[in-house]
Structure formats: structure tokens, C-alpha cells
UniProtKB/TrEMBL annotation:
Its EC number is 3.5.1.4. It comes from the Bacteria. GO terms for molecular function: amidase activity. It is an enzyme of class 3 (hydrolase). InterPro entries: Amidase, Amidase_CS, Amidase_dom, AS_sf. This is Amidase. PANTHER family: GLUTAMYL-TRNA(GLN) AMIDOTRANSFERASE SUBUNIT A, MITOCHONDRIAL, TRANSAMIDASE. Belongs to the amidase family. The lineage of its organism: Bacteria, Bacillati, Actinomycetota, Actinomycetes, Pseudonocardiales. SUPFAM superfamilies: Amidase signature (AS) enzymes.
Length: 458
């Protein structure tokens, strides 16, 4: 389905129209909040909406714009995931309970405010971001705007649903095992997993696994938001406007070792191979390669499970947590000592072994997920072990890049026969965001994914 630019205005487009005086921040914010409230009974993308605060911020933005003030996102409405502190709201990270309100902004939120953005609310995420589906007893189920019977993915599922449905043009998510890239794949968005340390977080999240990153409908919009929260000026937006040059792209479909039963769905494989053909048509050389992942998963679990343990210590009532969360936290307590230290110590060796593939290619192209988005409720009633098996079977491709700390970009790769979005990853070595963004923007020109939109729910 297609829709007009006015129905789905981009982040850069809104900023330009505001600067030109063609629209006011008050109008854009009222539209975004109206769509958020109207879609909430169906999509359930938001944990908190900031009506009064957002309207006040929009009024201030209009005053500044009228006075000739300019900033990259002055007056543009955006949203953030509910694992990031925002003054005056709790950071419950998908959990039930009476959390205290944050008394200061996270560094990335401070940068959004400095850029003039109007933050309309905080988006839903599963408990402590553990799963690739955004469902839980604290808030219910967040649904995919392309088909509300299916998940938008997770753990940045609320951000993805809000952007894909046109409530806002871009949102901030976080990615600890694919949590930006997976929902981007399953909702037809561009999602950037940033280089570790690129965006300030105020401390290590999940022992270096988790980074913040943007979700948007276009590469330019994702790059613009990244420039703001990484305080890089126009570095990444400039990259989105620059040709990447002829690249050698390695196509890889082998699933990293997970000790679980996994299989790449033929529909997903066909979509990724079709995208490789599009890249070849742009003049890039495509070669089939397989990175030497080895037993990288053994270094992931101590970091992720200890991170769950760390976060549960902030929860006011741990008895209200999902039994799977409490089980994971218990495993994290056991792994928090020597196993965690060993996992961190092994990282340089993994960089050398897996990174050797970039001596043969410039970029890796892989599936983002192994399956299309599952139906809502697929993971209900499963034990912790069964949940792990099911989610790894669906999403075995993204997490190694969190261990490495390197960047990756999800790009839309087409749809199933039922109209469910699919995605592919462009993966690079350390600090390769500019190359990946340039390549993604070039691909967007021929794939034209910003023209595809779901039926609106507002």
C-alpha cells in the first residue's frame, strides 16, 4: 500500500517545513499525539504519553523558530524506548510496579532536547528487553501495524510500531541482541545498531552488549537522528547522501552455532538473495562467504544474563516479574564472576577471528531474522527453556554483532505473500556506520521501501 508524504512525513521533511514556516511544532505535535492516542487501543505502542509536556515543548519550539533560532530537530516530535531515563517519568523497562520517576535525563535524551526535539512519550518493551516480541503482563501486547495479529518484534517493538504506523517519523530504540534490527525487519523500517560507544548511555548496558540506535522509515531520517544522539554534527546524514563506491559484499546465510534447532525460512532466504541481486545491479560484487563465528554464543550468555540480574535489582517488586525473568536473573547471579570476566577477555580474539572476513569483503549481507514475524501470543505459556529455543529459532542472526560491538543496519527486504515485512542486515567491521549508511541509502533508491506503508490505525 502507498500513502502520501503528508500522511507519513519524514523526520528531515518535518524539520525543513518547520524551518521554512510551512507548519508549526504545535501542529505536528498535536497530530503525533492524536495518532498515538487513536492507535493505542489497537497497536499499544506506548507505555507513557506526555501530552501536557509535549505541547509545552512544542510551544517553546515555535517561539524559538519565530525568533530565528535553528536546531536539527527543533519542534519535531519523536519518541524514546522505555529503557532510557526521561525526567518526570519512570523507567520501568517493560516491568510492572511502582518505579520512581527519573530526576534527570539520560545523555541521549539530553542531546535530543538540545537538538530541539519534542518527545511525545516512551514506547513499550518486554521485561528488561529480553525477548524479540513486545508482550508482557505490565502492558499487554504491542502489535504489528502491518498485521495486528502478529508481533512487531522486540525488544524495541513499541518504537518500531509507532514509526511504521506513521505516529512519528523516527524513534530511539536499543539493541542488545538485535532489539533494533529485529523489529525494524518485521515492520519494514531502517534500524541502525550503532558501534559500541557511539551514542552515550551513561554507563555500560548489559556488560557492553547493548547500544542505542534509531528506527525510521528512511536512511536519511535514521542518519539524522543518529547524528543528533551521537553528537556527530552531520556526519551520518552526509554519508546517506554520498555514493558508497563499488563494494565487495559477502552474502552469508549460515546460522551461527546456537546449540538449538534452527532453520532459515525459504521465504526469508529468497528475500535476502533478491536483495543481493539488487546490490549486484548497482554494480557491487557479491560473493558467498561464511564468517568464522565459532562458539561465540558462550561469551554472550554471561553478559546478557548478568545484565538481567543487574536490572532486576532496580525493580521495586521482583515477585511481579515473569518467572522466566526471575530464572534468567538467577542464572546471571551464577555467571557474574569468573564466567563474565572470561567472556569479556575473549572479545579481542573474536574480533580477530570473525573480523578476518573483512579482509575478503567490505560488507556482510545476512538475514536479520530466520522467520517472518510470529503471531501474537506465540511465546505465551512457554517455560524459560522453551522460550529460549523458540526465540533463537526465529532470531539467530543478530546477536553476534552485539558481542563484537560493531555496527549493523537492517534494511527492508520485501514481504511475505501475506504482506508481512522481512529484513536483511548490512554488517560491517568496527566504526563502519558511514559505509553501511551510504550503501543502505543507495539501495533505498532502487528498492523504494519508503513508499510502502501499512493501513493506518489512527
Amino acid at each position: 500500500m502507498t500513502a502520501t508524504s503528508l500522511e507519513f512525513p519524514g523526520l528531515a521533511e518535518q524539520a525543513a517545513r518547520l524551518a521554512a514556516g510551512e507548519v508549526t511544532a504545535a501542529e505536528l505535535t498535536a497530530t503525533a499525539l492524536g495518532r498515538a492516542h487513536a492507535s493505542q487501543p489497537t497497536l499499544n505502542a506506548f507505555r507513557h504519553l506526555r501530552d501536557a509536556e509535549a505541547h509545552a515543548e512544542a510551544a517553546e519550539a515555535d517561539r524559538r523558530l519565530k525568533a530565528g533560532d535553528r536546531a536539527p530537530l527543533l519542534g519535531v516530535p519523536v519518541a524514546i524506548k522505555d529503557d532510557v531515563d526521561l525526567t518526570g517519568l519512570p523507567t520501568s523497562f517493560g516491568c510492572a510496579g511502582d518505579f520512581p520517576c527519573a530526576t534527570s535525563d539520560a545523555p541521549a535524551v539530553a542531546l535530543l532536547r538540545e537538538a530541539g526535539a519534542v518527545i511525545i512519550g516512551k514506547t513499550n518493551t518486554p521485561e528488561l528487553g529480553q525477548w524479540p516480541f513486545t508482550e508482557g503482563p505490565a502492558f499487554g501486547a504491542t502489535r504489528n501495524p502491518w498485521h495486528t495479529g502478529h508481533t512487531p518484534g522486540g525488544s524495541s517493538g513499541g518504537s518500531a510500531a509507532a514509526v511504521a504506523s506513521g505516529v512519528i517519523a523516527a524513534a530511539l530504540g536499543s539493541d542488545g541482541a538485535g532489539s533494533v534490527r529485529i523489529p525494524a525487519a518485521w515492520t519494514g523500517l531502517v534500524g541502525i545498531k550503532t558501534q559500541r560507544g557511539r551514542i552515550p548511555t551513561g554507563g555500560e548496558l548489559f556488560h557492553g552488549l547493548t547500544v542505542l540506535g534509531p528506527l525510521a522509515r528512511t536512511v536519511e531520517d535514521a542518519a539524522l537522528l543518529l547524528d543528533v544522539v551521537a553528537a556527530t554534527g552531520t556526519t551520518f546524514r552526509t554519508a546517506a547522501a554520498r555514493e558508497p563506491g563499488r563494494l565487495r559484499i559477502g552474502l552469508s546465510t549460515r546460522i551461527p552455532f546456537t546449540a538449538t534447532k534452527t532453520r532459515l525460512d525459504p521465504v526469508v532466504e529468497a528475500s535476502v538473495r533478491r536483495l543481493a541481486e539488487s546490490l549486484a545491479g548497482l554494480g557491487h560484487e557479491i560473493v558467498e562467504v561464511e564468517p568464522d563465528y565459532g562458539l561465540i554464543g558462550l561469551t554472550f550468555l554471561p553478559r546478557s544474563l548478568t545484565g538481567v540480574r543487574d536490572w532486576t535489582l532496580r525493580v521495586p517488586d521482583r515477585a511481579g516479574l515473569d518467572p522466566r525473568t526471575r530464572s534468567n536473573a538467577g542464572h546471571g547471579r551464577l555467571l557474574a564472576g569468573p564466567a563474565l570476566r572470561l567472556a569479556r577477555a575473549l572479545e579481542p580474539g573474536l574480533h580477530r577471528r570473525i573480523g578476518s572476513v573483512f579482509g575478503r569483503v567490505d560488507v556482510l549481507l545476512t538475514p536479520t531474522t530466520a522467520t517472518p514475524p510470529p503471531p501474537i501470543g506465540t511465546f505465551d505459556g512457554l517455560s524459560g527453556w522453551e522460550t529460549d529455543q523458540a526465540m533463537i529459532a526465529a532470531c539467530p542472526y543478530a546477536w553476534p554483532w552485539n558481542v563484537l560491538g560493531w555496527p549493523g543496519v537492517n534494511v527492508p527486504a520485501g514481504q511475505t505473500a501475506d504482506g508481512l515485512p522481512l529484513g536483511a542486515q548490512l554488517l560491517g567491521p568496527s566504526h563502519a556506520e558511514e559505509r553501511l549508511i551510504s550503501l543502505a541509502a543507495q539501495l533505498e533508491e532502487v528498492e523504494r521501501w519508503p513508499e510502502r506503508h501499512p493501513e493506518t490505525s489512527w
